[in-house]
Amino acid sequence: MPKFEQYNIPLKDMKSEKQSFEFNLDDVFFKKIDSPEVQRGSVKATVNVKRISEVYELLFDLDGVIKLPCDRCLDDMNQLVRYKDKIQVKLGVDFSEEGEIVVVPEKDGVINIAWFLYEFIVLNIPMKHVHPSGECNKTMAGKLKKHLTRQKDDEDDFDDDMDEDETAYNEDYTDPRWDILKNISETN
Question: Which residues constitute the domain of residue 16?
Fold first, then answer.
């Protein structure tokens, strides 16, 4: 049995014009996909299939949580997943994508949606994923803060995660390598 066979939707053998399928995407699913972005999670996927003449419309509704490393402290964090999308599928000779329509072989009459489910989740991960303020690993955040050179007016919410004694660093400090560049505009 192929590892994603349970994510097959039999289009050709649909008994009615509309049909609904439910899938639970858990740690096992993410491990089988074997992609580095997401390795763990719990997402409920509902797929409603509607036949419209020669085209099948698949409406995806994803709701759940995935685990990602925090960009700031590297500890795992929960990232909510709430997403809706649709694809259109028609039967043809070979598997292909024709613009907005996915073509699956008519002899099979089945579409495997495992990779679509994974892509919908991954493509909706925010660029910056960090713990809510105050939830980062204090030890890691403190070590990182010691190695950062920042300006006073930096708007990042990083300071909210630090204890008072961790924020006692020299805010007037600038990297001496950049000091020489301050004189460039004065001499030219």
Answer: 5-122
pTM, full prediction = 0.73
- What Cα–Cα distance (Å) separates residue 65 from each residue in 13, 19, 44, 89? 33, 26, 9, 28
Q: Is residue 129 part of a domain?
A: no
* CA gap 25, 153 in Å, rounded: 43
pLDDT number for residue 167: 42
* Phi–psi pair at 162, nearest 5 degrees: -100, 150
Determine, yes or no, domain membership for 148.
Answer: yes
pLDDT for residue 171: 56
Q: Residue 47 has which token pair? A: 């797929």
The full DSSP string for 122-137 is: HTTS-SS--PPTT-S-
Of 122, 149, 169, the residue at which a domain comes to its end is 122
Number of separate domains in the chain: 2
Q: Is pLDDT above 50 for 115?
A: yes
The larger pLDDT score, comparing residue 182 to residue 113, is at: 113
